[in-house]
Each structure stands twice: as structure tokens, then as C-alpha cells.
Amino acid sequence: MRHRLIVPSAAAACLLLAIPASAADATPGAPGAGDSYYPTAGNGGYDVSHYDLRLQYQPKTDRLDGTATLTATTTQDLSRFNLDFLLDVSSVLVDGKKAAYAKTGVHELEITPASPLKKGKEITVVVRYSGTPSQAKVDGYSAWQRTPDGAVVANEPESAAWWFPSNDHPRDKATYDVSVNVPDDVQAISNGVLKGKSSKLGWTRWYWRSAKPQATYLTTLAVGRFDITTGTTGTGLPVVNAYSKDLGENYDAAKASVERTNEVIDWETSVFGEYPFTAAGGYVPNVKTHFALETQTRPFYSPAQFDNGANASVVVHELAHQWFGDSVSVKNWRDIWVNEGFASYAQWLWSEKEGEGTGQQLADYVYGQIPADNPFWKVKPGDPGADNQFDSAIYQRGAVALQALRNTVGDKTFFRILKDWPTANRYGNGSVQDFVKFAEKASGKPLQKLFDTWLFTAAKPSAKDAAAAGIGKPAPAAKGKAATRSLAGPAEPRSWKKIQAALASHPTGHRH
Questions:
Q1: Of 211, 217, 224, 472, which is the most exposed, with the fewest CB atoms less than 10 Å away?
Q2: Are 297 and 210 contacting, i.e. CB atoms less than 8 angstroms apart?
Q3: Tens digit of pLDDT per residue, the chain (512 long)?
């Protein structure tokens, strides 16, 4: 039987008709989320709703083996998409089918599915991988810290790429199941609720679940020998704290601080509203760092923070982040003030509660003791620039801005805003300008000039502008030695050194 050959132009037309429109229109997802500070952070074309991480870690060799299963929904017709990841990948499946993959750029895992993906499609991505995380260096740096008996991963603005593939930007939050198989003589600590443990042939698998949306950089893992304490808050929330057994002289001070987690959460709930998560706690591993981080439900603390004894102020700061930073996260990294300004002001409110200095006294002290020519005032907390993202001005001047707001709108409105903002934006993201508009609506007052003065001006606010916001009030008339002291400015609040010790412990950040 003879077959008639179709002429080339007709064949091409038939092939085009056979290709679904969505496939023809499919394009690669962006290799970044569009963050002005960190253009390659995160990716475009999809939103992740859940990460299931099944890991095995051997502390002796620092070998990590993992299978990450991501549930996501496409936001465009996709021909290709990226994950952020640094370790070696052995296979990738998209909806059960083998997908091509390649490592590009510094941390991009570029994935091409067997066929294009339609917009709005729920997909499952399975990545199998392995590697030595501490050896995965970017500009000589690794977020994965080895310890004498294990390892810890906790850092800001990113740490996920060293241990699981992800869409690494705070705008794409997801829930997590993290199960970690480790030798019987060590434990595995992560976020959320410990759902169980199972042991076999000298290994124990720990199952942790984070049931509320969580940003990638807030996801943490610690493996080592820990003393673990458990308890509940006043509302019955489960609390798990963990302390490396080899903290030495700092062990008791660390425990005396972090064991106040229950008390601090109960107090912060009274100030900021309902606690947004299903678990709480903290952990102190044996690391050489000096920073703390608000890893969701279970903040990370460095032992060095307790060199001079207990410091509840750092616990207040990191737990305040559960509302401001974790539940309501930055929209872009330039919005870091919506995290740090509020967590710092929480320390001032704690100081006020403890009778160690009011928010007003602390704001007056910051304004009065730092001269106008100090570089501190050159940093704009509302948009500090990537290089100054964790500058002390974000914390201290950022807290002064909130005291200025409090003075302007009055206590009743101010404390209502402190509760309503995290409630209205729970599990979402917010920008500095989003908060300005929120505060204006709540107070019925025009506030843009106030925030421009304290957050967006690269200079010390004038005495006139400060006075208009109730900042830099003159000290009461005094005589003798007290009068001599007043000439030098406001007296140092009793809580000042503890607050400064806590702020000095924050990360300086690392970006690749």
C-alpha cells in the first residue's frame, strides 16, 4: 500500500495543532523572586505548599543523604523551573516522571520536566541528593556548622540551600515534615512538634512537623548530644528546649535564660495577641558563633550570648519574632524593619514591665547618647541596603520609631496596632509601607512624615522633629551630682546592657 507524503508546510501545521496551547506558551520560571537586595534569591513560576524532607546524617563524616518531596502549584505555564540548592543531586522526578536537571549559577538547580506544566497545576517534585554540607562553600562560607558531636544549620537571610532544595525566599512559605535518621548516641532537633521516634540497627529517626506556613530560612536542623526539657505554656502549648551537653560554664546561664520561654510567650501573647504556632522552645548548640536567630517555633541561641550570665532579653527578642518576622515575614529583604524593629521594641516593653527602664527612657537614651555625626544615623532602617541589613540602627533606631508612633497615636491605639497587625497578616508577608498604611488606618492620623523622619532619613532627626514625636524629652530638673549627670544626657536605663548584649548577638548575614 502506498502512502501519500504530507508536504513540509502541512506537516508543520498539523504538529502545531497537536501541541496544546499551554505547552506552546510555556516559558522558564524566573531564576529569582525579584528581590531588589538579592536578585537570585528564590525563584518564579510556582509556589511550594509543603516540604517533606527525609534525611540521614552521619556526624563522623558530615555525610548527609536526603530525599526532598515538594508539593507546589504552578503560577504560569512552565517549560522549566529552578530550585535553590548546593549539594549533589542524583535524580529528579516531576509528577513521577524523570526530569532533566542541571546545576547553574551559584546555587541554581535547573529542572526541565518531561513535558511543559500548565498554569495552576499542582505538582510533586522529588529530589534525591547527598553531600558534605560543610564543604559546600560560597565565597568561602558555609551556613552548615559542624560541632564536636554533630552539626547545626541556622542563618539569615538564607541557609536552606545547604541541606534541602527549595524556593528560598520568605514570600514562598510552606508547611514541613522533617524526619532525620541519626546514630543512637545523638539527637535531631528541628522545628515544630516532635511527632515520634523510631529506632533500628543503631539508628534513630526523629519526626518533626511544622503545620503552619514557614519560610525556608527559618527552617533549622541540629544534630548532637542534647539535654532536652519539655513543658507547656499557660495555654497548654508544648515547649521543647535543647542544650548541648558540652556548653561548659555557659550551660547553667543558657538554661536559666531559655527555660523562661514559657513565661515570655505567655507575656508576649498578652501584648501581641494569640501565639501563631503549635509549638515553642529554643536550643543552644555548641557552636562558636555569637548570634541568635528566630528559627520558627524553636529559636537558635549561641552559647556566647550567655558568657556574662543569664539574659532573658535575647529570649524576649527571638520569641517576639514568632509574631514579627515568622508569622508576618518580610515582603522583600529591604523590609527587615518589620522584623527587627518590633522584636527590639519587645525588649523595651519587657524592660518596662520589669521596671528596668521604660520605652520612653530607652528611646530618649538612644537619641541623646548617639551624636549626629555617628554613622549610626546614616543608615535608613526602612531601606538600609543589603550591606547594612543587620546594622544596629535597624534595631535601635527602628525601636525608637515605634516609641515615636506610640507617643503620636497614644497607648490605647498603639497596643491595639501591636495586636492587630500580626493578626491581620498572619502567615503572610508585609512591607514597611504596608505597616505605615495599616497604622494610619488604625489611628486615623497621617503618619508618613513620622516614618520618613525615623526610618527613611539618612541623618539624625532634628531636635524639633524629635520633640514633635515626644523623643529626647529633657530630664527633670535636678541638683548637685544628678544635675551634673543630666548635662551629659539621659541616664542609662538599667536594662540597657542586657539589651545591647542581645542585639550584638544578631547575625551579620551572608549572601552569595
A1: 211
A2: yes
A3: 333 323 333 333 343 444 454 567 999 999 999 999 999 999 999 999 999 999 999 999 999 999 999 999 999 999 999 999 999 999 999 999 999 999 999 999 999 999 999 999 999 999 999 999 999 999 899 999 999 999 999 999 999 999 999 999 999 999 999 999 999 999 999 999 999 999 999 999 999 999 999 999 999 999 999 999 999 999 999 999 999 999 999 999 999 999 999 999 999 999 999 999 999 999 999 999 999 999 999 999 999 999 999 999 999 999 999 999 999 999 999 999 999 999 999 999 999 999 999 999 999 999 999 999 999 999 999 999 999 999 999 999 999 999 999 999 999 999 999 999 999 999 999 999 999 999 999 999 999 999 999 999 999 999 999 999 999 975 454 455 444 444 457 899 999 999 998 887 665 444 33
174-183 and 46-58 beta bridge pairing? parallel
Hey, what amino acid is at 336?
I
Burial readout 177-214 (b: 16 or more C-beta within 10 A, e: otherwise): bbbbbbbeebbbbbbbbbeeeeeeeeebbbbbbbebbb
Distance of CA 328 to the CA centre of its chain: 10
Q: 3-state class of 177 per DSSP? A: strand
Q: How far apart are CA 302 and CA 463, in angstroms?
A: 39
C-alpha 110/C-alpha 112 separation (Å) is 7
Q: Which helix (H) or strand (E) holds 80?
A: strand 78-84
37: buried, middle or exposed (CB in 10 Å: 19+, 13-18, 0-12)?
Answer: buried
What 3-state DSSP class applies to 318?
helix
* Identity of the amino acid at 198: S
Is the pTM value of this prediction over 0.85? yes
Smallest CA-to-CA distance from 314 within 329, 298, 331, 292 is with 292
For 284-322, how does the pLDDT look when each residue is reduced to its tens digit (9 = 90+)? 999 999 999 999 999 999 999 999 999 999 999 999 999
CA distance 278 to 212: 8
Distance in angstroms (rounded) separating the CA atoms of residues 49 and 44:
14
Give the three-state DSSP class for 53.
Answer: strand
- Cα 45 from Cα 26, distance rounded (Å): 10
CA distance 281 to 260: 10
The sign of the dihedral angle between the CA atoms of 335, 337, 342, 343 is positive
Exposure of 56 by Cβ count < 10 A (0-12 exposed, 13-18 middle, 19+ buried)? Answer: middle
Distance of CA 91 to the CA centre of its chain: 29
The full DSSP string for 385-449 is -GGGTT-HHHHHHHHHHHHHHHHHH-HHHHHHHHHHHHHHTTTSEE-HHHHHHHHHHHHTS--HH
Q: Does residue 333 sit in helix, strand or coil? A: helix
